[in-house]
Amino acid sequence: MSNSIQLVDRTGTLKQMRKQGQIPAVVYSSRMKNEHIAVEEKVIRTALKTNAHAILEVILPSKKKHPVMIHQVQKDSLSGQLIHLDFLQINMKEKLDTVVAVHFSGEPLGTKEGGMLQIELHEVMIRCMPNKLPNSLDVDISKLSIGDKLHVSELDAGKDVEILTDPEAILVTILAAQKLDETLEPASDESQADSNAAETKS
Fold first, then answer.
1. If you count Cβ atoms within 10 Å of the first and of the last residue's Cβ in the chain, which end, N or C, has fewer?
2. Quick one: CA torsion of 112, 117, 122, 124, rounded to 10 degrees?
């Protein structure tokens, strides 16, 4: 679990909060009353960049500490500015269902042969205890040739992590490169001569 993130009471209007570098947020859980708070934008952007699905420890204005996950992020569609965040409180003694990133390593043989790598899934759904939550699932794709596919069933998540995504779902495939259209060949000398004659008559 990463360093604690301090949450504060909401004060002033949303415009004033954003001017102070704060983002409105809510911490919710089935075991506690929803807490409507604010969080420093710089801090939460760092957390999102590091691992958007990581378990964080937040400190409420009441000084109580809770493990949470970032459940939902609302952004302005044009500016990308953070608008609102939802934190979900986690019970560290119960398994949780969440998504985790899949990290592909190595250069496929197929791309060296002229093929193209196409990634179908960047994340998969997993179930595990919170203290066993991986940062990502790593898979080596260097042996994939043109026409090969890698399925979810081929991921190795270890004994502590259950993968919930359909095992037959495709993670990546190596496509054959498309051939250029051969209709772009230069015109023959005879065709060019006919064209020049037509231009002369006109």
1. C
2. -90
Helix (H) or strand (E) segment spanning residue 110:
helix 109-112
Length of the chain: 202
87 neighbors 27 (Cβ within 8 angstroms): yes
For each of the chain's 202 residues, which pLDDT tens digit applies? Answer: 556 899 999 988 888 898 899 999 999 987 778 999 999 999 999 999 988 889 999 999 999 999 999 999 999 888 888 999 999 999 999 999 999 999 999 999 999 999 999 999 999 999 999 999 999 999 999 999 999 999 999 999 999 999 999 999 999 999 997 743 444 455 555 545 555 554 555 4
Identify whether residues 85 and 105 lie together within a single domain.
no
59: how many CB neighbours lie within 10 A of its CB? 14
CATH of the domain at 157: 2.170.120.20
Are residues 108 and 40 part of one domain? no
The kind and range of the H/E element at 200 are helix 189-201
Q: Specify the residue for token string 């990581």.
A: 54
